[in-house]
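ping. complex inputs:
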Amino acid sequence: MLRPFALYRPTTLPELAELLRKYGDEAALYAGGTELLLLMKEGLVRPGVLVDLKRVAGLGELAASEGTVSIGATVQHLMVERSVAVRAHCPLVAGVARHVANARVRAAGTVGGNLAFADPHSDLATLFLVFDARVSLWSGEGEREVPLDEFVRGPYETVRRDDEVLTAVRIRPAPGEGAGAYLKFGVYERPTLGVAVVLVLDAERRRVSEARLALGCVGPRPQRLGHLERRLRGTPVDELAAGRTDLTGSGMDVISAATDLHGSADYKLEMAQVFIRRALRVAAARATRQVIDARYPHTVVV
Amino acid sequence: MHLAHEVLIEAAPETLWRLLWDVPRMAACIPGCGEAEEVTRHQTYRARMTQKIGPISLSVPLVVEIVAAEPPGRLILSAGGRDPVVGADIAIRVTLDCAPDGAGTRLHIGAEGQVLGKLGALGHAVIQRKAEETVDEFGRRLARAARS
Amino acid sequence: MPAIPTPSLSSITLAVNGHRVALEVPTHALLLDVLRDRLDLKGAKRSCDMQVCGACTVLVEGTPVSACSYLAVEADGREVLTVEGLGTPDALHPLQQAFVDHGAVQCGFCTSGMLLSAKALLDEQPRPTEADVLHHLRGNLCRCTGYRKIVDAILACAAGSATAA
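pong. complex structure:
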């Protein structure tokens, strides 16, 4: 049972802004409700008003142009999985969307809702970091674009003001020839780790010219691993494909980790090393068109 | 939940102590802490702690007890209460240690306690993080209040 | 701040298992409660109440939905299919027959959710691979069968019929 609330269904952003202004703290933004309704059932949030975003014009669009893919806030994970534009420009994103939660959540849950909830375990929030994602925030006062890295401040906390709504996220696939991989390790719907990697190779396709790595579920928010990315530049790709990359001195010790129901901090840090090596192996093998057997227990390899 | 934080206050230990011992005034330096009132001077106080953790709003009526007071060095308080709306039970023990440091005071804030109930579903790391932010800001506000 | 408007009843009209149904429901009513308590359709079950187990799965416009976490008002103007609309005791749906033939039902608690999830899959992909079936059923938990016979039943149903729906 839910506690009673009033439901409004604006069809334009100005109408939405007026509702948020009018009801302030009492209003909760609602699209798929995959997190909101659960919190409401537990009594942890008790909004008197739900403002449904699903009929607001312009929030449900998916488009690609000039190397940027724009995903509207109310686009469901299922739509991302099936999108021709996403599959063409950013197949890794379509592949990861396919593995969010379960089929029912994918059909209802939205990309905007996922990012705005800022769950440290979010697959998309982790993956989008390696695609230089930027989120658009709209309010009656104007619009701003914020890098995803700055948008998510901490666990379940973003820089979105109460009068703002996340309208879209834009991602840029890495330039040049390369390959990526996303590994999710965990049991049932409790992911212990999410690792996203994109490798760009040099002209001879022998060494890494650029590496992008993001780690989710471990720290207070998904994080890019800058130290390790710099360390990997120039590494022979065959070394990565062999799966024995030495990660010492790569700044692994400065990764912040927190214990939760999905694993202790120590365990997560230990397993982060294992899965980063595995993710690099998968990406390196793809970049060099090698066929490898990458099956690990309780792990989804995208 | 376990916290330790140190802050350098530009005031002598005795000056800082006067601020700390004025419990309602000290409580006003804690972000989210309001409605502080005395029940029995230097023994029992009441206050309300209001915080937002992610999308969840918490409002806890607290009973604060002075456990030990050793002027001008040490003050120990315990605070407890329950937010019936969210179903969160809070019990914390705060130790404030003042040591002279040059012309000022080095204040060590130690806090130990637990938050039980549905809020735990968010994970204790989230609660710990919020507690750390609160204590950090408390130290900053105390420093400002002690200077004036 | 203005007073929150008193939550009121909403009139909704939906097609449940092919029958038109007009109801007044509170805005905060969940589809699962409306199906079970107002329409006496007990096939969908409340189990985890958090969209993880799949026991409450129904199809809305052919898409699987966790009825425990879906507002009834969202079904306004839409077609809802529950297990009661899949087949009858005298005329089982091919999926139901396959479940019977393969011993894919033990306690039966997960069964309605499994059947509807399977129907949604076969309507979309008439010839799924085993991997497709396993992927699609990840959100439907079974404590009895170990899943093997459920998967076999679905694959057999897909192989056995030209049109799976």
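Residues 118 and 154 of chain C are 7 Å apart (CA to CA).
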